[in-house]
Amino acid sequence: MARRNRMPPWHEHVRLANGRDLLIRPIRPEDAGPMQAAFTLLEPDEIRQRFLHPMKELSRQQAEQLTRPDPRRDFALVAAEPLPPGEALVGAVARISIHDDGREAEFAILVSHYINGMGLGRHLMRRLVRWAKGRKVQRVYGHVLESNLPMQALAASLGFRREATPEAGLVRVVLDLPPPKPKAASLPSLPSETDGAKT
Question: Key word Transferase present in the record (predicted)?
Answer without folding.
Answer: yes
